[in-house]
Amino acid sequence: MSEETKEPESSKPEEQLSDPRTPVRLGYAGASQLEAGESASKLQIFANTERPPVRAEGALKQPLLVREALSALYEVVSSDFRYVPKDRTAYLAYQRLKKQTAGQSAWQAQQAYFDWLARNDPSAWVVLDPVVTVHPDKLLFEVFSKDEGAYAQMAIDWSAIERSGELQHGTTNIDFSKALFDGVQRVRSYRETKLTIGTDAVSVASDATRPPVIEKSIQLPDSWLRGFLQVQAAATLPTTAVRIAAIDLYNVLRHLRLNADKKQGGRGVRVELVPGEPPRLVLEPWELVLATSAGPFTGRQPALVRIWGRRRLGLLRRLLPFVETVDIHLLGSGLPSFYVLRAGPVTFTLGLSGFTSANWSQAVGFDQLLPRDRNEESAAVLSAVLKKLGEVWVASADELAKATKKPIADVRAALQKACQHGQVMYDLSEDRYRYRPLLGGAIDLGRLVYRNPREKVAHDLVAKGAVKIASENRIYGVGLELTGKVTVTADRRDYRPQLTLDDDGRVRGAECTCAFYRKHKLKEGPCAHLIALRIAQAQEEERRRQARGSERGTITLETRTYARRLPPAPGATGESEEIVQLSLDRQRLRIRWGPRGAAKLRVQSFVFGSVAEARAAFFERVDDLEARGFLDGSAG
């Protein structure tokens, strides 16, 4: 067996192959807190003493707005939507701990709990403290959720703060604990609230009563750090922008709150976009259609985009009463989506990957969005861009291209790479880039390129052309069945991985003929051959998407799903939706059609004498459906 395939076929658990954690040191001169008086409150937030100092101080002009925005930020950083099976081990341990700490003070009991948590489940509380950036125009906060599924950025314009003292620009971490969150809840509109951010802030206690320095030495999971950088960098990709009103988002949240998800039904939100018409939001599986009220869609092409992570939108509920407009930025069906909420001087951006760290299949599809090359050709452009951005703090891509005298395409590529490296933040609300080193030191990028050694082997196999998709079979109501052929020359054999992916990109079934799968199944994660097949399928899907309309003469395998909303039938209570699915498989053409949600669709199959004839019939029907107003749900 070759060296490159030996690692994934090893029987060792993945944890024994590498230590997937990045050490980070944090230090605070005290615990962040709110001191509430009769006429004024002091919100004191301590910054990390292990990083260059930053400083900002002033009175909040709209304290309630800032309170709700900070509360939404805390909801994101503490959220965890991963599935947790019922396990009584922790409950029994809690009962034992409760008996042991019955006679202790609250502080001692809390310390005992944290000690137990550090020994038994360190990943439950090891996330990077919120990142704060002080720039000439704004004060920005960034967080990433525990389950690696939600990114949030809150920006406060300096017009919302009556500043006192000079700003000290830079980026640092802040102590944002549950105690600070509880203190923020006591902010009131009838009391002046002063905000102070800095390594020493403004003393709210005498030297004799000053709390001791808080020091943390955490091992940050590389998967968490990787997800943070990827979601932020994904915002730089071209998106379809849709504007809705705050009440439209409220209607979505209200329905989700009153109705539980169904196991057998879809859990997405379909966004129907027709030029000149208001965007429509369709909630699955109830097929509830919510027409938006912020105006018509201004794009040129109709689209049907399916987005995930709708339950995470509930993290925004407290901020909604202050929101004026909501801009949704869509990358495509099943891909990350971004929500920009504008509330006067405060802008809140929520980015949803749509999946958690446990879903490797969707994560592999997400990886294909961002470049992996690490060639040195663009190093000069990247260095020039970072140097200029470090001087001006914030600038657009055009401004940086003009200042560095570099081609705009090279500058955009360098900025996207800088976001992946953690050096730059993309401000989606303004389409500008901000200088923001995520960590105090350099990030070991080599550890973040791949999630594990098997993923690296999978990418090597795909790069060498050793992975072929032997067959694709799309089954309505089930998903896509894939069979692959992975040739490993050193092993002198072919492996046959098989995958079944549902419409959300989640794995419903997986198996392989390799020794790793036969021994571990999926308990240690997928083998390199399954990952390679998923990568090859994602690349092929992207190639087909790019080729639509320009390379019709080369397509031999393709499936498209079209949908059209129909007016209410006589005697019916609401609209219905018609679905048409076209599947081209070389000389075969299969057409399925019927109402959405039906247990079975009608099917018609054709066999032609040549691939060219089947292809011509396929595109003839495609053109006819688009001319009749059907939306291509597979083009998002």
Describe the structure.
With 636 residues, the chain is α+β, with helices and mostly antiparallel strands. It has five domains: 105 residues, no CATH class; 192 residues, no CATH class; 133 residues, DNA Polymerase III, subunit A, domain 2 (DNA Polymerase III, Chain A, domain 2); 69 residues, Winged helix-like DNA-binding domain superfamily/Winged helix DNA-binding domain (Arc Repressor Mutant, subunit A, Orthogonal Bundle); 80 residues, q64v53_bacfr protein fold. The protein has 16 helices and 32 strands. The strands form seven sheets. The protein has an eight-stranded antiparallel β-sheet, sandwiched between helices. α10 crosses α11 and α13 crosses α15. The two termini are 41 Å apart. The N terminus is likely disordered. One of its GO terms (molecular function) is zinc ion binding. Keywords: Metal-binding, Zinc, Zinc-finger. This is SWIM zinc finger family protein. InterPro entries: Znf_SWIM.
Q: How much helix, percentage-wise, in residues?
A: 25-40%
Mean pLDDT: 83
Looking across the biggest beta sheet, what order are the strands in? 9-5-6-7-19-18-17-12
Low-confidence stretches: 1-18, 202-206
Strand content: 25-35%
Give me the Rg, rounded.
27 Å
Shape: globular
Give the count of helical stretches.
Answer: 16
Largest sheet: 8 strands, antiparallel
Q: In terms of structural class, how would the helical and strand content be classed? A: alpha+beta
Instruction: Give the N-terminus to C-terminus distance in angstroms.
Output: 41 Å
Number of strands: 32
Whole-number tally of structural domains: 5
